[in-house]
Sequence to fold (381 residues):
Amino acid sequence: MDLAEIRERLDGIDGELIRLVNERLDLAAEVAAAKRRDGRAVFDPAREREKIHRAATAAGASRAPQAIALMSLLMSMNRAEQQRILAADDEGGAAASMRGALLPADACFPAAATVACQGTEGSFSQHAAARLFRAPSITYLTSFEGVFRAVADGLCEYGVLPIENSTAGSVNAVYDLLGSYGFSIVRSLRLKVEHSLLALPGATVAGLREVISHEQALAQCAGRLNQLGVETRAVKNTAIAAELVAASGRCDLAALASTDCAALYGLEPLEEGVQDSEGNYTRFVVVSASPQIFPGATRTSLMLALKHEPGSLYRVLERLFALDINLVKLESRPIAGRDFEFAFYFDLDCPVGSPALDTLLDALGDVCERFTYFGSYQEIV
Fold:
């Protein structure tokens, strides 16, 4: 056969494959109805193992890997379809809850709002709030939990918090508080962060003995701090560090903070841009006590606790692949009190309202022990 004939045969086979895949997915409705009637779970691991074994055996040793991959994907697609069908009438399902949080198409993100931030004037949280809202009224709290309490108690409409840094990683305390308070992320901002060494007038770099700042800032500047050979001490916030240096009277003490804090607190920048990475960005999120999804939301954040067994993460990634959903963040964290078991943070790039995202949210129950939906939102760069 020449190339044209080979391609014609391939096209015919592909057409038949699509017909059969559609027929297989159509049968998912009947399978779902039978499982609902009999009270059976969607995921049947024994049957899936047997089907994968039969596929690998039938394909032969040289093509067993391709057969295993194909059969695994087909079954993942089928399970997702079953979950979608079973959840279609469930008003308490994850996808239905997400749709209930969608705001009207003409809703705009507020320009003016009461906002809670951790820290004080000049902090990076304050800079983020000023970028996210055109006219915010900011209340400063001493801790991340204070921000959550202020929003929970109705003192402020929104909270602005750091959730991830490109150098130091996730701010796990914020994720924990999101889960415990049941808040939602409604917008995010990627802010370039540059740290300066700020000290009282007359201080010198050579004379420094101690540098204070937030623990994330210290981690982001660890290389330069090691070169200086100084002691470090973590405080609540970068701007609070500048405030403490201003009140200390010590010329051997410096703060890692934004250059703006120098003018605010009567300090001088000894060195600017001392972070280890030039591309040092912190993601800040706006949190709300009630779910709110503004038009244009394309990012969704989840936390999944997976079963402690081989292939548990693969099944989630396989589901994302089957639904053509782009994964932009994956990070693991140990589950407290459970040895060698992990929760995973996922950020997904998928427009809200797409059938793929609806299907995924309703189809996670068979691939994880539990999951937390942190919200869908737009990220500002």
